[in-house]
Amino acid sequence: MKRIDEKIKEIEKKDKGSRVLYIAFVVLIIAFMAYALNSEKEKKQKDHTISEQGQTIEEQLLDIKKKNDSLQEVVDKLSKSQTPIGFWNQTMAAKNTTSYLNYIMHQGKPEAKDEYRSIALENIKSNDTEGKTVWLFCGRKNDSRIVSDRVFDLIYREDGEITSVDMLPEKGDVVQNTTMNRNTYRNYANGNATGPNNADKAWKKNSKALVLDVKFAGNAVFVQLKF
């Protein structure tokens, strides 16, 4: 009888150990399934992220290509403008007084040709060239110089030598405002410039202008400018 009890206890002990192993096995399977599901979820998220990144990279590459194309156009234009004829064609295309004046006064490369400078001077006078035409009191003269109230420097004369920046201006000269922003006038009459212009027609400091006409009233000097 005692031996039977021992057998029963031994069987129960083995059965209990089997149940523990079974439960551990079930827990292991559940853990593995949870791990597998989580891995699949992470994989899908990574695939989605990679897909989005791939689209973003593609968009970035397309944007870079557009910028490169635009930059190449700028480079091509710049390359063409570095030749004398390219520089002149670029100036002609602008059709404004500032571009022509900058061409006339340009030094260095690309070279500005004297024959084109002459054309630039004539083109400034044309109504087809954008610019502001104004009158200005520019100082008081003594002989061939402006000796007081001078507002600009003479910086270019096509057919003559400039011996001093305070020489009396002539038609066709290029002058530069060396003082401050200057109020300008619409007309010249009775020995004076009359009819003040709007503020947008003030002649800005350091700006250049072409002399279209020169008038004298006693020793006062008035010029008609286009800038």
Task: Please characterize this protein's 3D structure.
- The protein is α+β, with helices and mostly antiparallel strands.
- Helices cover 49% and strands 22% of the residues.
- It is elongated.
- The protein has four helices and eight strands, in the order ααααββββββββ.
- The model has no long low-confidence stretch (mean pLDDT 84).
- A hairpin with a 2-residue loop joins strand 7 and strand 8 (220-226).
- Among the domains are: 84-122, no CATH class; 132-226, no CATH class.
**Oligomer status:** single chain
Strand percentage? 15-25%
Class by alpha and beta content? alpha+beta
Low-confidence stretches: none
Span from first to last CA?
A: 129 Å
Number of strands: 8
What characteristic shape results from the CA principal axes? elongated
* Major beta-sheet overview: 6 strands, antiparallel
Radius of gyration: 44 Å
Order of helices and strands: HHHHEEEEEEEE
Strand order within the widest beta sheet: 2-1-8-7-4-3
- Supply the number of helical segments: 4
What is the mean predicted local confidence, pLDDT?
Answer: 84
